[in-house]
Every structure is written in C-alpha cells, then in structure tokens.
Amino acid sequence: QFLLGESDLGQNRAKASQRALAELNPSVVVEAHSGKLSEAFLASFQVVVLTESPLEEQLRVGDFCHAQGICFIVADTKGLAGQLFCDFGEHFAVDDPAEGDPVSAVVQHISQGNPGVVTCMGTENFQDGDLVTFSDVQGMTELNSQEPVPVHVLDTSRLEIGDTSSFSPYRCGGLVSRVQEPEECSHEPLCQALEKPKIQLANPEDLPRTRSLHAAFRALHAFRRERGCLPRPRAPADAERVLELARSLGAQQCPLDEDIVRAFASVSAGDLCPVAAVVGALAAQEVLK
C-alpha cells in the first residue's frame, strides 16, 4: 500500500491513509469512515466501490445500490489475478458509444435547393441517417445555428441534407461533423451477473482461462467462509479444496482449467502493489464514467 509506512502499523488503514491521499489533490475532500457500511451511510453516494470485500457484503451492498440507482463497482486482487465488476444501473447513458475521434469533413460547396447537396472530402466516414451539424460556414450561415440534421450519402464527395432553398448563398469554408447520439444500456445487479457471466474477449482462446478465474474467485469466497482465512501459500491441500469448491459452484459452460485454479489458490494470499495499481486504475476510470 503506497500511502503507508512502518509507523502506521496497528492503525486503522483508512485513517492512516487519509492525509497522504488528500495531499494528492487539494480540490478533493477525502474523509475516512471506520463504521459499518449501513444503508443510511451508502445512500449519500453516487458511486460505491468495494475492495477486499466478502461476497456476502458485495451482494448486500450491490442489491441496495442497484435499487437506489447508485453506481456500484467491485475491485479486488488476489496474487497475480484481478477482478472488476461494474453495475451502473438499468438506465445508464453512454455519451460516446464509438469511443473514437469525432467524424468530420471540410466543406467545399453547399447548393441551394430541396434537398441541398454538400460537397466535401471524406464522406466515406458518414452513413445514411447520420445526424450532422455545421460550423464556420460563410455565406450560408443559417446552417451554423441549425439543429442536427440527417444526411444521405450520394457518393464519395457529396452528402444530401434538407431544404436549403431559402438560405443565403454559400460562399466558402465550413466543417460538417457527425453528432454522436447517446446510447442507453442496462446493467445487471451482481447477484444475477454471478450466475450467468457475460464474457466478451478479443481472443476466444482465452475464454476457458477467464471462466476458470471467475469460478476460482467465487470458490475463494467459499473457502474463506469455510476456513476463516485465505488458502496458505503453496499449500497443495488448500489449493485442492479451492478446486473442489470451484467444481461444485454450478455447471460450467466450459471445463475448468484446473492448473489455473490451483495456481490462483496457491498465491491468493499475496498482495502485489503493481497488480493492485493496474486494477485500481481501471476501477478509477470506471468511477469517472
């Protein structure tokens, strides 16, 4: 833990970290809370992030946050593996679904007519039905203040827009830009996502390993409930018990990678700052959303 030193041993971790954490950004108020995570306490937040939390607490807090419309995130690391879960509610608006650079083209000419025709370079980046706006147009300035209008792609250099017959004649300049329409997506609460995880991977060959780690994290929670601690490092008996628990947690859609589960269990008691930093950075980016 980057914010603590040997002098902090024996202290509450949140309180000991508070001063150093607050110094990172004086514009952010950082408060430490050492009481229970009651519903009254949680209700005041827009986002709740749980780390190193038992599964029972994750489910309890996750159900409450989902019902109250509070964004909920679980971030955890065990040894070399990390876990991140996000529930942003049933009506979460994504302002930039494409997550790419804005699509725009330099205007060369706009005709007066019904419909008007825009001549520009780069129409291959537009599709029929795209909503566009205009800026810095000289002459036909009415377009600069117009609401987004749909386009029809005629060819590699021409776009068809609405009625421009009553507008001033086009002189020069201008930029036509595609408007990114927000999309709404729905997130499942943790209790549902655990039972039927939806995993999308760029490389399908990674699917067995990913599903095995998902089962291993669940088995680790069960082991902790059973034994009151995490598996001992490099203890074959403990690793085998985690594997048994992973097998018993419902039917897998694909076979378990038993070597992965054993390796995960053998190092799960270790905390590595680099792994925590990577998963923590990903969680922080989700918080900003």
UniProtKB/TrEMBL annotation:
One of its GO terms (biological process) is protein sumoylation. SUPFAM superfamilies: Activating enzymes of the ubiquitin-like proteins. GO terms for cellular component: cytoplasm; SUMO activating enzyme complex. Transmembrane segments: none annotated. InterPro entries: E1_4HB, E1_FCCH, E1_FCCH_sf, ThiF/MoeB/HesA, Ub-E1_IAD_1, Ubiquitin-activating_enz. Keywords: Ligase. Residues 182-249 form the Ubiquitin-activating enzyme E1 four-helix bundle domain. One of its GO terms (molecular function) is SUMO activating enzyme activity. The keyword Ligase applies. Pathway: Protein modification; protein ubiquitination. Residues 114-179 form the Ubiquitin-activating enzyme E1 FCCH domain. Gene3D superfamilies: Ubiquitin-activating enzyme E1, FCCH domain, Ubiquitin-activating enzyme E1, inactive adenylation domain, subdomain 1, Ubiquitin-activating enzyme E1, inactive adenylation domain, subdomain 2. Belongs to the ubiquitin-activating E1 family. This is UBA1 enzyme. It comes from Cinclus mexicanus (American dipper).
